[in-house]
Amino acid sequence: MHKLSIDEIIAAINAETPFFAVAEDYSFTLKIDSYAHYICGAVHDGHQFRKELWSNCLHSEYDRWYEEDPATRQMIQDHPIVIAGCDSRFEYDLNRAPENAIYEDAWGKQLWKKPLSDDFKNRSLKKHHNFYKVVHALVSKIESKYGSAIVYDMHSYNWRRWNREVPVINLGTTNIDNSKYDVFAQSWCETLSKIELPNGINTTAGINNTFQGNGYFLKYITQNFNNTLVLATEFSKIYCHELEYIMYPEVVTAIQNDLNMRLPKHANVFYDSVIR
Length: 276
Fold this sequence. Notes:
Elements: E1 2-4, H1 6-14, E2 19-23, E3 28-32, E4 38-42, H2 51-54, H3 61-67, H4 72-76, E5 81-85, E6 105-106, E7 109-110, H5 118-146, E8 149-157, E9 169-172, H6 178-192, E10 205-207, H7 216-224, E11 228-236, E12 240-241, E13 246-247, H8 249-275
Parallel strand pairs: 1-2, 4-5, 4-8, 8-11, 9-10
Antiparallel strand pairs: 2-3, 3-5, 6-7, 9-11, 12-13
Pfam families: FGase
InterPro entries: N-FG_amidohydro
Protein name: N-formylglutamate amidohydrolase
């Protein structure tokens, strides 16, 4: 892995150079083994939290971890193109528009002891801006190379806070062009429901059951690129104990291994049906 500036990352993309890099401010990573027809993203995987923010933050490390999407990068790390956030969404949320990316409160609890200065906010928003400069260059490259692209937007959610039965995996499709792409959302949902998980977990999958796919990552790409499908894919946190702060690595690995088989097959069907 190399540390690269935003300009160097974009230049490498434009030149179709394979690379594995971390942004020079350590805010995100991008791995491109080959310029394939699909992209994987994990914008909420990050847990870094600027030290100068610690004393002003009312949320504990556990509080932050609870709302982040740990291990979502690992689930997709073997695929040809993977972009993932390194910073916690509690500093700035890559899945929110810039004007809403810095929380004042989070899930009903005030976040800061005293309001952040404009300088602190702008330093975080610059990282948000740079991430989307790279996303734009990356999707532009893949869409121009193939005529279309598909992005697997990986997340997780806390199933224990729901007072009803919820699916192990939820797809949010409200903001995609369903007249054009519904068949691929349906097939992605079906193939996800077949993932085999350990510990007696019965894999279920649904569409717009818990979340509808209202994230900025999906919206940004969808609004800026007419021929790219983004599938917002949320795993319930069956791969950890969200209340006890315990990860289940055998479940994470099972998801990773199963996606290594199923995700490229789905992307290939998309490629054969839409791109070719």
